Amino acid sequence: MEALATTPAMRRAGIIEQYRDWLPVTDATPVITLLEGSTPLIPAPALARAIDPKLKVYLKYEGLNPTGSFKDRGMTMAISKACEAGAKAVICASTGNTAASAAAYSARAGIQCAVLLPKGEVALGKVSQSLMHGAKVIAIDGNFDDALRLVREITDEYPIELVNSLNPYRIEGQKSGAFEICDVLGEPPDFHCIPVGNAGNITAYWKGYNEYFQAGVTQRLPKMLGYQAAGSAPIYYGHPIAEPDTIATAIRIGNPASWKKAEAARDDSGGMIDIVTDDEILEAYTMLASLEGVFCEPASAASVAGLYKTAKSGYFTEPATCVCILTGHGLKDPTRAVAVAPQLIDLPPDKGRILETLGISA
Ligand SMILES: *Cc1c(COP(=O)(O)O)cnc(C)c1O
């Protein structure tokens, strides 16, 4: 039987092969990949109509990465470089998605993985992934910031590789998201909307946009619009938050590692970092699912909630292109989805009652 014809665009190569020339890899680097990246940039016309008809809105659906979040872009680099250096074990602190990704890529590489999670604050899907991939999963009685402090101390003292976004290879891999957006649109968007937690991703996107710009691949730069959850918004308020709180668990972080770089992305691009409330996040989360058919996790919806808030404030005076990063898949947090979605309808197996409930009359 003949092989199916494929075009390069139909094949996922993984971000290291796709953007090899832009990444710190050599022929000696073992490529540990699950063929991450090449995620769709989905037009969102219904959302644009609801938010501000002047805007062209696109959703970068990072939930379609192999483990369901953008963390895979950075993890393929971090684990490949760790293996190149001969590491036998990696560790991270995580609100869930870094752990899921580290666990999967470590399994693939055949190395040990340990993850520290804030107890009771990680969505069920993410915990299940880390466990299934065979990581040592440790839940600590503390928050993400406590977990990150502990893994920094451990990796300072012992030969175990840190794969949080403090690891520069994570940022290198994650910048590929910006390349993909420019490759699809031909130029960067006017505005780049993104949730901000530990602030690695806003840092990575800004780096990617700048590299394309400096190499002459693109002719301009976007304005970076970062959004923190109101209850865990250290950058917005200008001081660490001791007890960050939000339903968007992936961005429940009180002392972000890439704080200064996120401020630089904001200031150098002429953008801003604002806050969105949990209610605004959940409204955007529901709108995305019901208006566009795109299911993301709550933290991801902060980018759309932020765009909505910013548009309502009258910020956009002219037509503009906006890309919202949807950082993780909705199935990561089924508990939240079931809590906010319309309720299940329980009925006996009775055709009359079913028709009546559906509003179909005989
Ligand atoms: C990690 C994560 C974020 C936050 O990204 P940072 O790089 O920490 O700012 C947002 N959303 C999801 C789903 C994540 O997993």
Global Rg: 21 Å
Count of helical stretches? 15
Instruction: Report the sheet-strand fraction.
Output: 5-15%
Low-confidence stretches: none
Biggest sheet features: 6 strands, mixed
- Reading side by side through the largest sheet, how are the strands ordered? 1-2-10-7-8-9
Helix content: 40-55%
General form: globular
State the end-to-end distance. Answer: 52 Å
Q: Mean pLDDT across all residues, rounded?
A: 96
Q: Would you count the extended β strands for me?
A: 10
Bound molecules: pyridoxal-5'-phosphate
Which structural class do you get from the secondary structure elements?
alpha/beta
Which series of helices and strands comes N to C? HEHEHEHEHEHEHHEHEHHEHHEHH
Describe the structure.
The protein contains 15 helices and ten strands. The protein is an alpha/beta fold. It starts with 14 loop residues before the first helix and ends with a helix. The model has no long low-confidence stretch (mean pLDDT about 95). Pyridoxal-5'-phosphate binds near residues 71, 97, 197, 250 and 297.
